[in-house]
Amino acid sequence: MWLARAPVTAAVGLSLALLLLMATPSPSQQITGSLSGIVADPSGAVIPGAAVTMTNELSGDVRRTETNTEGYFSISGVMPGSYTVRIEAKGFSPYQAERVTFTAGDRRTLGRVTLDVARAAEEVTVTAVTSELTPVESGEKSVVLTAKVFENVPVVGRSAAEYVRILPGMALVNTSGPENRPGFIGENIGINGNGDGGKQSMLDNVSANGTRRNALEITADGALVSDPGCNCANPVNPNPEMIAELKVQQSNFSAEYVKGPVVLNSITKAGGREFHGSGYFYARHHSLNSNDWLLNRNGVPGRPTSISFPD
């Protein structure tokens, strides 16, 4: 009897394994980064056991580690933000690097940090080192659009994805109508898609560096927020009031970014130690809308002559 039931048991076990595999959630896009470096003395000898502290300058969150026997340290899972890195070892002057800025998925290194022999009240402090900490563990080509860009560059709608139009190589496509103009110009009416309401998404309407229209992908904190079947619309727009940055990854990024080949990675704003907020009011009237140049050339009116609101 045992021999007769064995094949059935094996088949049931295989079926359960396949079901568990299918139920496993797909991995999200990588949004955290890492910082590494080697600590040495003036003679070039490495310093094991040096204390490394990484402090988020906005929230005060602290990460700590120590160098190993090779003088090497690494801190992973670093969220986007600005950090102060401090390295201390007994008998040596402390080293401090301020405003070490991370964007989504950055892998940065301090390189070889040299600690001088301690002298009275002496400390080495390096400020604004962002430009010197070019990621060396990735050959990706990317551009980061920050909150300062969102505040100072006007757009038609309330989607941060519209800001890709200011980047080189991004061109609106998918023309429509006899006037031969872009199908999407920024409006958002109802559901943010490309259905009966017209073109209301940057997806499927932008060619990035000559790629096809559906080669664009939008993520929010690493989660995909675009149509998984066609990459032709997104039900959720990255609101420029709610995100800290939009990282446009154009080529040579890591394998965890399974979509693309161009990924718009939006990161929401994080809290800090101080209470703050903002208030705003947006209003537009059709009479202030200018007509498109191509519409004028073809004698096509580009704005409504009247507007009505429901009671």
Descriptive report:
The chain is mainly beta and 311 residues long. It has 3 helices and 17 strands. It has helices at residues 2-23, 147-152, 293-297; strands at 33-40, 51-56, 62-66, 72-78, 81-88, 95-102, 107-114, 124-126, 141-146, 170-172, 175-176, 181-182, 206-208, 216-220, 223-224, 243-251, 262-268. A 5-stranded mixed beta sheet has the order 3-2-5-6-8, with no helix packed on it. A 5-stranded mixed beta sheet has the order 9-16-17-14-15. Strands 4-1-7 form a 3-stranded mixed beta sheet, with no helix packed on it. The chain is elongated, with a radius of gyration of 26 Å.
Total number of distinct structural domains: 2
Rounded to an integer, what's the Rg over CA atoms? Answer: 26 Å
Average pLDDT figure: 76
> What helical percentage do the residues reach?
10-25%
For the report, how would you describe the main beta sheet? 5 strands, mixed
Strand order of the largest sheet: 3-2-5-6-8
Shape: elongated
Distance between the termini: 77 Å
